[in-house]
Amino acid sequence: MKRQVALLKHASRADILESVRAFETEMTAAGFDVIDIDSGANFSHAELVVVFGGDGTILRAVEKTRECDIPVIGINYGHVGFLAEAEPDSLSDLVSAIAGRCWTVDQRMTIDVVVRRPDGTVERSWALNETSVEKDASSRMIETDLAVDGRGVSSFKADAVLMSTPTGSTAYNFSAGGPIVWPNVEAILLVPVAAHALFTRPMVVGPASELDVQIRADNALVWCDGRRCIEAPEGSVINVRRGAKPVRLARIHNTPFSGRLVAKFDLPVQGWRNRREDLP
């Protein structure tokens, strides 16, 4: 049977469609069948899913591939593209790496989310980056009680409460003032957004801990990776714990996370390098 690779694309940009056509041509010449996930075709035998787009498109891809354990690799057509591995001008190098099986796989921790409403209904979801508990359109703020491992630790009003993975620490968490955590660290991050209280510092808990956010007043929306939304009316409890199933991201470069951080955020490091060179 011919080797297979699947693709998923952001379909509204002409430059992406042009790159997809070039990718399909090169992969076919290398002896692969190329399957477009959006066509509805079975891609369960694909070695990789190649994503053309930004981090949002990659998050859409992991929704579709998480259960079948196919690694995802992204070509960045977004702004920062922290989840992406390749740039558009390196398409031929990516084809060569796939054909030569020259990739590794990172297992990225996820979080499982359970929303229990006061009427007894329960909804479940998961996230690779973060779960955001936000005020709904009818609420000025949400009043929350926060517990870690079943013990209350704080209560406050806020616009939102973020619970993130290390992978998501460079996403919404970063914009909200949360810490950057290396993706090989297993932890859950909690960051209040625009909270009205004295103790509203970010917290980092271990992977075995569970977080509970109770909506004491007003109504909330629970967003998972900004893609899946669950209503959480007053009295609801949102439980977040380490996900039972990780996401697999393929890598063709061995650049350490510190290097990716500098490149993606264009961080100034020249002074640090000069000081290092002066050391005996």
UniProtKB/TrEMBL annotation:
- Corresponding gene? nadK
What the record says about family reads: Belongs to the NAD kinase family.
Q: What is this protein called?
A: NAD kinase
Molecular function (Gene Ontology), one example: NAD binding
Q: Which reaction does it catalyse?
A: NAD(+) + ATP = ADP + NADP(+) + H(+)
What does this protein's UniProt record list under function?
Involved in the regulation of the intracellular balance of NAD and NADP, and is a key enzyme in the biosynthesis of NADP. Catalyzes specifically the phosphorylation on 2'-hydroxyl of the adenosine moiety of NAD to yield NADP.
Enzyme Commission number(s) of this protein: 2.7.1.23
UniProt cross-references to PANTHER family, sorted A to Z: NAD KINASE
GO CC annotation: what is one? cytoplasm
* Keywords tagged on the record: ATP-binding, Cytoplasm, Kinase, NAD, NADP, Nucleotide-binding, Transferase
